[in-house]
Each structure stands twice: as C-alpha cells, then as structure tokens.
Amino acid sequence: MRIRILGTAAGGGLPQWNCGCAGCATARHTGAVRSQDCLAISGDGSAWYLVNASPDLRTQLLAAPELAPAPGSRATPLHGVLLTSGELDHTLGLLTLREAAGLSVHASAPVRAALHGAFPVGPLLAPYTGARWHTVVPGRAVELAGGLVAEPLALGGKRPRYAADLPVPPEGERTDWVTGYRFTGPDGRARAVYAPGLAAWTPAVDRAVADADVVILDGTFATDDELARHTGGARTSRGMGHLPVADSLPHLARRPGPRYLYTHLNNTNPLAHRDSPEAAALAPALAAAGAAVAEDGTVLDL
Ligand SMILES: [Zn+2]
C-alpha cells in the first residue's frame, strides 16, 4: 500500500487568501504553505484513489508523479474518489476532474444526496464525464481496484453549511455526513485509517486504529476554544464536529503502535505553523503519544 498525502490544511488552506493574521502572514512570507486536505492511496502502486477532492486538486495532482498519465496517452492511474464529507473543501475538486474519461465517486447517502441537490456536482459533471456514484455505508467494506479495501467509519453528523436547511431525516435513519475509512492493502496486512473529520473518539474508532500501521486524523484545532480565542466568536472545536488535538492525544497515548499523523489543520492551529515556537512547545506531547503533524507531499509505504 502506498499513500501520498496531498494536502493537510482545513478549508481555505494556509495561508487563507483573505487573512492577514500572524500565522498566515508568516506562511505567505516563508512559503511554508499548506494545501487543503486530500489524500491519494493505492493498494498496488498502479491503481490510485483520491480520498476527498480539494479545491487545490489540480496543483496537488501535478505534484504527484504517481498520478501522472502514462506517456503518450490519456490513461490516468486515477480510478475514483472516496469522500469523507460533503464540505466544499472536500468536494470542489470534483469539478476539476471533469476531463476524466470516467470516474467512480463513493460517498455516504446524505453526502451523495447533497451533491445531487443543494450542491449539484453530480448533475454538473454528467455532461462532461461518466461519473458512477456509489453509496458507502459504515461497516460495509468496499472492494476497490488494485486489491485495496475501504471500510467506511461513521464519524459524525455535522452537515456542510450549504446543506443546513435540508429536511431532517426521520428518526432512526442514518445521518452519516462525516465518514472515515480504514484501508487494507492487497496482502491483508497493511492497514491505514483516514479520519480528517473526527467528532468523537467512539468505540468504532478505537477498534479501527487498534491494529493500524498509520492513522491520519483530525487535527483541525489544537484546543476546544482555539477559534473562539482567535475570532472572539463562540464556535468551539467540538461544536464544529472536530475533536481537538488536546482531547484526542490521550486516546492515542492509550493506543500505542500506529504512526499517528494530524491533518486538516486550521490556520488558527499553532501546529499548522512549522518551526513556530508554539508548535515546538507542543511537539513533546505529540511525540510521547507517537504522533506528529502531517505534511503536504509525504509518501507512506506500508
Ligand atoms: Zn490567518
């Protein structure tokens, strides 16, 4: 199994185009930028899948030699996309893929419905490429090309803001707006978990990480009140469906073994800023739990 981490920032990236805060200004000045959360994964090194399609996708694809088309052809190794949410920072890149000869898109039922309704990417893509849409159901494994198997994990019910007014499903119906995936390679041994939006540390998450080689997880905010302190607003990390790093670290420490990498870092998160004194101060606590911050372009061979 080979993984290429394409992007590690939350929505808007780092720096955000309209933000002049100290962190964004430093990133602008030093070039220590982060593109928006996205991952490429392959079971056999030939057939590749994206997990999420970020607004930065074109640049991310061009920076990934594994995803280049074969010489002299328009055949690309990219087979499809698995979505972890319907958020704009995870789905806008689907429009960038409109030139594909064909594409499979895997999404949970509410996300798939939203992408054919409130944000109609599905109907918009249809005249350009033959996209085949598949519904993922937590706990039901999906067999992909190259021997890759993806087991969807239910990670939360937070809707994208554009879908806030959609009808509430009847009691008991699934509301899997946020999904993670546990990937298994062709030999059945290599295991990776990708959970860029983690609302809570559930028993299912605990089981999924137990025997994983690598876990790439939600590092949007370092602490619950981080955004409120930066903006003077009232929104908390947990309220936005993101378990802060301070609250997931104890779980990581309790589950040693996997290599833990935090991703989907917001521009307010001190960990997003490489070489900053704040990130350096947090590094020992991360290292003690077997964790580090994910970086754009990192390749993991499992
Ligand atoms: Zn900023």
Protein traits:
single chain, 302 residues, Metallo-beta-lactamase, Chain A, 7-stranded mixed β-sheet, 9 helices, binds zinc ion
Question: What does this 3D model show about the protein?
Answer:
The structure is a single chain. The strands form two sheets. The protein has a seven-stranded mixed sheet. It has a seven-stranded mixed sheet with strand order 7-8-9-10-11-12-13. It contains nine helices and 14 strands. It has a single domain, classed as 4-Layer Sandwich (Metallo-beta-lactamase, Chain A), CATH 3.60.15. The longest helix has 12 residues. Strand 7 and strand 8 form a beta hairpin. By secondary structure, it is of the alpha/beta class. Zinc ion binds next to helix 1.
Q: SS-based structural class?
A: alpha/beta
CATH homology-level superfamily: Ribonuclease Z/Hydroxyacylglutathione hydrolase-like
User: How many strand units?
Assistant: 14
Shape: globular
The CATH topology label is: Metallo-beta-lactamase, Chain A
Radius of gyration: 18 Å
Task: Give the rounded overall mean pLDDT.
Answer: 94
Q: State the low-pLDDT regions, or none.
A: none
- Name the bound molecules: zinc ion
Q: Strand content of the residues, in percent?
A: 15-25%
Largest sheet: 7 strands, mixed
CATH architecture: 4-Layer Sandwich
- What's the structural domain tally? 1
Q: What is the multimeric organization of the chains shown?
A: single chain
SSE arrangement:
Blueprint lengths: L1 E6 L14 H9 L7 E5 L5 E4 L5 H6 L15 E5 L5 H4 L10 E7 H6 L6 H5 L4 E7 L5 E2 L5 E8 L21 E7 L6 E5 L7 H8 L3 E5 L7 H6 L13 H10 L4 E5 L13 H12 L2 E3 L5 E3 L1
Bound molecules: zinc ion.
